[in-house]
Specification:
Its main location: membrane. GO terms for molecular function: calcium-activated potassium channel activity; potassium channel regulator activity. It comes from Oryzias melastigma. It is found in: Membrane. InterPro entries: K_chnl_Ca-activ_BK_bsu (IPR003930), KCNMB2_ball/chain_dom_sf (IPR037096), KCNMB2_ball_chain_dom (IPR015382). With 239 residues, the chain is of the alpha+beta class. Among the domains are: 117 residues, no CATH class; 36 residues. Helix content is 59%, strand content 22%. The chain contains 5 helices and 5 strands. Strands 4-1-2-3-5 form a 5-stranded mixed β-sheet. The longest helix has 67 residues. The two termini are 44 Å apart. The relative contact order is 0.14.
Length: 239
């Protein structure tokens, strides 16, 4: 009788050990799956943080390039005030020479009409010479517009026709918007600016968006990590 009871207890103990071993195997598999999931999440979070840092670094580089090109030219420009210029005289004075490259050690000469325009700024009696933009003002001290010299005769003829049409337009429409130097250090006024407010704002848009996007990616990853740790702590307290 005692033998039978001992055998029965030994069998129940063996089945209990077998159940515990199966449970431990399932638990080990579950823990291993959780570790794999955590590792995969950590790898994804690391890649996301690197992406955010790369976007921020790229935006800083873009800011640097813009700072030494567009922003520098915009800040150094003295034609900051916008006003109304009244055309006093619009005359095509002469044909100006320009040269273009026609091959290795080959340069040829073409011509374009030089349009001179003198205006009065804001009806103040201050007479200035009108120029197209900053580049034209640096290239010529006489002409409103200095075209790019081209070897195509049809293209140069179209430029000549355009300059003549502008001359006729200014003789009919006496008032044009212009930019002038408020300190009166320059005797020229500009018809347009290469880098105005809208150009500067558009150039700063993309690096600003990239900087904001990179910062948001890092912020979301850090917030996700914080909420994950908070959930784990709450789960431990409940247990």
């Amino acid at each position: 009788m005692f033998f039978v009871a001992g055998v029965r207890n030994a069998g129940e103990s063996g089945r209990g050990n077998e159940r515990r071993s199966i449970y431990q195997k399932f638990r080990e598999v579950d823990i291993l799956d959780k570790k794999k999931t955590v590792t995969a999440l950590q790898a994804g979070e690391d890649r996301a943080i690197l992406l955010g840092l790369g976007m921020i670094l790229s935006s800083f580089m873009m800011y640097f390039v813009l700072g030494i090109t567009i922003l520098r030219s915009y800040a150094e420009s003295v034609w900051t005030e916008e006003g109304v210029c009244v055309v006093l005289n619009s005359t095509v004075t002469a044909d100006m020479n320009c040269s273009y490259n026609c091959g290795s050690d080959c340069w040829r000469v073409s011509k374009y009409p030089c349009l001179q325009v003198y205006v009065s700024v804001n009806n103040t009696g201050r007479v200035c010479r009108l120029s197209h933009n900053e580049e034209t003002q640096d290239a010529s001290s006489e002409c409103v517009y200095v075209p790019r010299c081209q070897k195509d005769s049809m293209a140069m003829q179209a430029i000549k026709d355009m300059i003549m049409n502008v001359s006729l337009h200014l003789k009919v429409n006496k008032q044009v918007p212009c930019y002038y130097d408020p300190s009166e250090g320059q005797d020229t006024v500009l018809l347009t600016r290469i880098y105005n407010h809208s150009v500067v704002l558009r150039s700063l848009l993309w690096p600003s968006c990239m900087l904001l996007g990179g910062a948001l990616i890092i912020l979301m990853v850090k917030l996700t990590q914080y909420l994950s740790r908070l959930c784990e702590e709450i789960g431990k307290i409940k247990r």
